[in-house]
Amino acid sequence: MEKKGIINNNTTDPNKILPMKYKWAREHYKAGVNNNWVPEEISMQLDIELWKKEGEGALSEDERRMILWNLGFFSTAESLTANNIVLAIYNHVTNPEARQYLLRQAYEEAIHTDTFIYCCDSLGLDPDEIYNMYETIPSIKAKDDFVVNFTQSVFDPNFKTDTVEGIQKFVHDLIGFYVIMEGIYFYAGFAMMLSMKRQNKMVGIGDQFQYILRDESIHLAFGIDLINTIKEENPEIWTEDFQADIREKIKKAVELEMDYVDDAMPNGFLGLNPSTVKDYVKHIADRRFERLGMQTEYGTDNPFPWMSEVIDVAKEKNFFETQVTEYQNSGSLDWD
């Protein structure tokens, strides 16, 4: 079966990146470069002082729990996403400009993994506790297990995308990876941690989550563009039964995420409560349905409109405060 699309293309040399066919992949790559950062550029001194503080002005036990739960989830989730890219997705996406972006994304996942090492070291946390939470905390384990089971087809060494069924399985797994893991599970954690930053608490970790969020927003955009391109090139896969299966699995992911929200912040605290975060999860899920060309499910308004501002505000370099830079090129090229 001759393939000429973005996956398993046996008519294109994967080493020949010009001329480009999928310019959106190149745009996502350049957007990622413009968000370039490393965690050590962000000072953790104020976070360390607040984490150690006792008495008046100290973090509450609920705030500490929420921070630890998010560090525990993200510390292993980033490794899971990197493994998906390098060991599974890259093998089947043979288009060179899409592969270039996947390499960029893999690098960013390594930066994110390094971020949690930096946070744990700075706060003096027990790495065994943090990095084993995906096994010891049931709500985190349930999310990770769900995604692992959702994306298992592409890890089969005999898996191919040269049939309708194979392409369906690949798109199914891409949705599990990009839409559910990066597009839903990550966003509740971002909202929790960035709410803390808005109260001027744990601002170092907040800055790092902000830049991770910006990376992840590009990962999500690339992933959905990839999924939709495969759909357009293989319309026979997008059956009613397949869409119904995807819908039910996204709804299950939302349920698991809401369980995690209740577990990470059972009581809530100033400026944040579980019901609001769960509304945000539903709102985010509806936006993912829309991008996949599907009907929305929940009809929930966005309780955190400021999250869009966090993604969109341009970074500026402040050498005296050692803030993260936005690496802009002096010019750009048009790729035909």
3D architecture notes:
The chain has 12 helices and no strands. The chain is an all-alpha fold and 336 residues long. It has a single domain, classed as Orthogonal Bundle (Ribonucleotide Reductase, subunit A), CATH 1.10.620.20.
Q: Can you tag this structure with a few keywords?
A:
single chain, 336 residues, mainly alpha, Ribonucleotide Reductase, subunit A, 12 helices, 65% helix, globular
Structural class: mainly alpha
Helix content: 55-70%
* CATH homology superfamily name: Ribonucleotide Reductase, subunit A
The count of strands amounts to: 0
Which strand-content bin applies to the residues?
under 5%
Run of helices and strands: HHHHHHHHHHHH
Mean pLDDT: 89
Counting structural domains, the number is 1
Determine Rg (CA atoms, Å). 20 Å
What's the N-to-C terminus distance? 29 Å
Instruction: Report the CATH architecture.
Output: Orthogonal Bundle
Q: Which CATH C-level class is it?
A: Mainly Alpha
Shape verdict: globular
* CATH topological fold name: Ribonucleotide Reductase, subunit A
> pLDDT below 50 for ≥5 consecutive residues: which ranges?
315-336
Q: What is the makeup of the main sheet?
A: none
Number of helices: 12
